[in-house]
Amino acid sequence: MIKFLAALVVAAGLFLGGQITDTSHAWTPPNPRILAQGELSPHIRGFAKGEVYYEISDEYGWSAWKANVNGALDTNSWYAQSYGNIMSPHLYVAENPSRARIKQRLVSTAFMQANCGGSSVVIGCAYWYNNPAFILYKGAALSQWAFRSVASVIEHENHHVISVANDQYYQPTLTCTGNPDTVMDCGSTAAWLQPYDIQTLFYVYVPDHPKITNVRLEGGWVNVSWDLLRKDGGYAHYNNDNDIATRVAFAFSRQGELPSWVGSVGCGADYGYCFTEPKALQRGFDIYWVNNFDCAWVRMENSFWSVEQSSQLGLDGGAPAGHWALAGCWR
């Protein structure tokens, strides 16, 4: 019987970002949560659209390699704890060589040691900056393991690439802590993505409230404006901007009432539900909105639209307060 053991891994290029301790979680890892500077990766904007495609390469010779990768990663995989199943509906993960951003490479022991730091205990390493990114796996080890252990290594390594997540074992000595709260540790640890890991991904891919918003009345219209900076200070992003946002949504309210999305109160399909491109920096609404409401709200969105804005995920120490940021009121 093969004892479950997640591999020690080395992630190439994951030490460029600043350190931010996750104080909202019950467990404090030996290394504070560290993410690479997201905009330095060529994959962040692509994955922010909600699609992760990969290709498989067997340079070692293990007939079950393809089935193991598909099972561990794919959305709608038979394995309920696959990366894609856990992250559904936010990410769709599938093998697609023609659109691949990650190459899953099963290689020889000699190749592993030559390209992953030389240590004989390393089972996988991720080169997240390459385009496409590639992950190296030691075929001699994985081909002897049970699927659950193989899948945990595959999820660990792909989480490095997809969410620029840092290892959470003690890196100077490659010491596992066995913490069950993250797949990014090693040893007798979590075998698939945990809430801590999902939160890490959201921090990277969820746009945030604009840092500056404003409303003003002009000629009977209300003009709503915003900037492209992030209220959360640019967590996991090289620049403090919302460049992964693909649209701006709007809501209106009366003073003291909850905001209502414009798509449900007046901006129907004929008006494209009044979504606007972020780079427009402003949107005008006519007399109907001026007369029937008192306040305007904005929300930066991409394919992670159902997740609260990044600064509301506990990063700023505050409690989540919904999806909308108050742009301002005119009475």
Query: How would a textbook summarize the main sheet?
Result: 6 strands, mixed
The CATH architecture of the largest domain can be given as 3-Layer(aba) Sandwich
What structural class is derived from the secondary structure elements?
Answer: alpha/beta
Strand order across the largest sheet: 1-5-6-4-2-3
Q: How far apart are the termini?
A: 71 Å
Helix content: 10-25%
What does this structure look like?
The termini are far apart. The longest helix has 17 residues, at 147-163. Helix 2 (65-73) packs across helix 6. The chain is α/β, with parallel strands linked by helices. The chain has 2 domains: 8-205, Collagenase (Catalytic Domain), CATH 3.40.390; 213-329, no CATH class. It is built from 8 helices and 13 strands.
Any descriptors?
single chain; 331 residues; alpha/beta; Collagenase (Catalytic Domain); six-stranded mixed β-sheet; four-stranded antiparallel β-sheet; 8 helices; 13 strands; elongated
